[in-house]
């Protein structure tokens, strides 16, 4: 299957890994990670996408779901939004930084 986009999570993989297993990356709570979305066709356009990150192990996925349900149950609104506001390099303006808000 040929995918249009190359997606890179900017996080280091674990130093020690078993040869027969896929690379493992550990993410730390509170840490910011960059994600690159590169169009292999080289088209210069704005793309709207959805990103989902999941644990490899099903037991870890079940645990994460219970933490998520607990967290969302504590919120005033039932609609969950992940919001990150900061500076980013605008890809359409060379050397230009802009404020960005990523919602959902």
Automatic annotation (TrEMBL):
GO MF annotation, one: DNA-binding transcription activator activity, RNA polymerase II-specific
Domain (Grh/CP2 DB) ranges: 1-104
Pfam families from the UniProt entry: CP2
PROSITE patterns xrefs: GRH_CP2_DB
InterPro entries for this protein: CP2 (IPR007604), TF_CP2-like (IPR040167)
Matches recorded under PANTHER family: PROTEIN GRAINYHEAD, TRANSCRIPTION FACTOR CP2
Protein name according to UniProt: CP2 transcription factor-domain-containing protein
Organism: Mucor circinelloides f. lusitanicus (Mucor racemosus var. lusitanicus)
């Amino acid at each position: 299957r040929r995918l249009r986009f190359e997606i890179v999570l900017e996080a280091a993989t674990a130093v020690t890994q078993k040869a027969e297993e896929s690379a493992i990356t550990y993410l730390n709570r509170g840490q910011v990670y960059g994600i690159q979305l590169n169009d292999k066709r080289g088209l210069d356009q704005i793309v709207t996408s959805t990103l989902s990150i999941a644990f490899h192990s099903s037991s870890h996925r079940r645990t994460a779901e219970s933490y998520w349900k607990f967290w969302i149950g504590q919120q005033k609104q039932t609609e969950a939004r992940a919001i990150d506001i900061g500076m980013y390099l605008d890809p359409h303006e060379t050397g230009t930084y802009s404020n960005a808000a990523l919602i959902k």
